[in-house]
Specification:
seven-stranded antiparallel sheet
């Protein structure tokens, strides 16, 4: 119970009676709407979050800041990115944009640069609407819904959608004060979806201003225009400033709102506007000499506004922090080594207690003994011919299932397969750090107990079961020869064509890294996503910035530039972006054709 002054801040997580059918229908409808990028990587792991960071001149060889950014997306051909450079009136900008974009999305100009990671903030809410009994839902006048004691008419409009090769289709859109109705089921209930991106937004204006910014101050002013999606923006400039600003349009909510569908009739959960940008997190020139983000919690505990709860596991962020905190004399080359780092921080945290939990007397099978030896000898680098990365990830998957799966079954809760977001690590269960804490600090936690057995299990019993199951699974799938379990054989690149035509896809060699490493690989079942663009900018010489992506500058499969950047990207190499202000400043080898436009 919460009493006194704290009562007003207590979460209001009250389920709406009679709303289950409508909410379930809304979930089905939205699950069927596949987000962009998913089709290109269906069935292939390795799509995880993004990284960006900036270090101050105190940690660099040039004495100026260095900025790094690598957004992680599903791969496709043609690539989502198009690398370009423009010079106008003595100013230059370079980086990666979309093929139809009039601006660089992630890049820099001659004085300032920016890198992006998705904040993974909560910008959507469900509102359960109460419809007036007897009102028609489709034909006739729009139905009415209850809001703050008043029966209000649903706002009805019609949208015409052009379909190639067919007649246009008319779609009726009903909306309440909370947003469009996405489902109607059950006892006079409907579900409306509120989203910060439903109205006009000005992201292109924000990016246009960022492209032209002359320093950190103008970059931050440009971010006033950024609404959707909310992003963690890492910044650096020629004057020596670095900053990290999680920003975008995020609702001001009542305490507790955002985690479950809200009652739309009462009005208690109505959004009260957006969090002012001046109240969003911002770090400028911190004493550590660096800023970094990797899709984790963007603000410390105690931050006054609700931003969300579905953050990526913290292992990439921990590893980046560890490497940057001890770094000095950084250059573009040494920053590339950090971007390409494949040390699995999660494995380093989990494996010592898990291996200690294995009783050697229970490992009677020769394969289990060899698997244990491989894990004990592993240096936690997800690369090379060791079977350890595949073993570790399979063991973790089965360990998680054994720890949490019985809890859902015992309560009769039907769980959906897969995960939320773009990474298979974000399972529908307590976050991975909770399991790490239990594994390392509370081996007799009640959560380890298997509710399906009369015995009281702890960590050691569950870990041993999961290990035996993992080894058995890999043997069934890959055979007894553990050389076939090697990461170089399992973690192989596959970039599908946007058209879905197999002859247009490209299948490459091994990709170092795992789902937990700074350089993202996969979980051993093929790599269809990861670092879609790598960029490093040293403001000691902005013209020497570097970038790479797994694709090509042409969408024509007959062109040599359809896929010529893939081998370079796979080898961890970069090309110079040549952010110069005039063509005569380009080196001769970078010039192939000049087109001069005159009035």
């Amino acid at each position: 119970p919460v009493h006194g002054a704290d009562a007003a801040a207590a979460p209001r997580l009250r389920p709406v009676p009679g709303a289950a059918a409508a909410i379930a229908a809304a979930e089905r409808h939205l699950a069927a709407a596949r987000p962009p990028g998913r089709a290109a990587s269906a069935g292939h792991s390795g799509i995880c979050g993004s990284n960006n960071w900036a270090v101050s001149g105190a940690r660099t060889a040039s004495g100026k800041p260095i900025l790094a950014s690598d957004p992680h997306l599903g791969f496709q051909l043609p690539s989502i990115w198009y690398a370009w450079h423009a010079a106008v009136k003595g100013r230059a900008v370079a980086g990666a944009g979309f093929p139809v974009s009039p601006v660089v999305i992630i890049g820099h100009n001659d004085r300032a640069g920016w890198g992006l990671t998705n904040m993974q903030a909560d910008a959507v809410d469900y509102f359960v609407e109460t419809l007036r009994p007897g009102d028609p839902l489709v034909a006739g006048d729009p139905p009415r819904y209850l809001h703050r004691g008043e029966w209000k008419p649903v706002e009805r409009s019609s949208e015409e959608i052009a379909v190639r090769g067919e007649a246009p289709r008319a779609v009726q859109v009903d909306a309440t004060v909370h947003g469009p109705i996405v489902a109607r089921e059950g006892e006079g209930r409907a579900v409306a979806l509120a989203w910060t991106g439903l109205g006009p937004t000005r992201e292109v204006v924000a990016l246009w201003k960022m492209n032209r910014a002359s320093g950190l101050g103008e970059l931050l002013e440009a971010l006033d225009e950024l609404a959707v999606p909310a992003m963690n923006v890492a910044c650096a400039d020629l004057d020596g400033n670095i900053a990290l600003h999680p920003c975008g349009a995020l609702p001001l909510r009542t305490p507790g709102q955002g985690r479950i569908p809200m009652d739309g009739a009462s009005g208690e959960g109505d959004w009260a506007g957006m969090i002012p940008r001046t109240e969003l997190p911002l770090a400028v020139n911190p004493p550590e000499g660096f800023v970094a983000s990797a899709n984790g919690r963007p603000a410390p505990l105690g931050y006054p506004h609700y931003l969300g709860w579905m953050w990526d596991p913290s292992y990439r962020a921990r590893r980046i922090q560890e490497m940057l905190s001890r770094a000095s004399g950084l250059t573009v080359a040494s920053m590339a080594a950090i971007q390409l780092d494949v040390h699995d921080e999660a494995a380093e945290r989990f494996l010592p207690p898990l291996l200690a939990a294995l009783d050697p007397r229970s490992l009677e099978d020769d394969a289990a003994r060899r698997a244990t030896a491989a894990l004990r000898d592993w240096d936690y680098a997800a690369r090379g011919d060791s079977p350890a990365p595949a073993l570790w990830l399979e063991w973790l998957r089965r360990y998680r299932d054994l720890v949490w799966g019985d809890e859902w079954r015992a309560r009769g809760i039907e769980t959906e397969p897969g995960s939320w977001g773009y990474t298979s690590d974000n399972r529908r269960e307590p976050v991975l750090e909770v399991l790490e804490y239990m594994t390392r600090e509370h081996p007799r936690s009640a959560w380890f107990d298997d509710r399906a057995t009369p015995a009281r299990e702890g960590r050691d019993e569950i870990a041993a079961r999961a290990f035996i199951a993992a080894v058995s699974s890999l043997r069934r799938r890959l055979g007894d020869d553990m050389s076939l379990w090697a990461w170089t054989r399992r973690n192989v690149l596959r970039i599908p064509s946007l058209t879905g035509d197999a002859p247009l896809e490209r299948v490459g060699g091994p990709v170092p890294g795992s789902a937990f490493t700074v350089n993202p690989g996969g979980d051993g079942d093929g790599v269809g996503g990861g670092a879609s663009w790598r960029m490093i900018v040293d403001f000691g010489d902005p013209t020497a910035s570097a970038g790479a992506y797994p694709g090509g500058q042409s969408e024509d499969p007959a062109s040599p530039h359809y896929d010529d950047l893939i081998p370079l990207w796979a080898a961890g190499r970069y090309v110079q972006l040549h952010c110069v202000t005039a063509p005569e400043r380009l080196p001769p080898e970078a010039r192939s054709k000049t087109l001069r436009l005159v009035p």
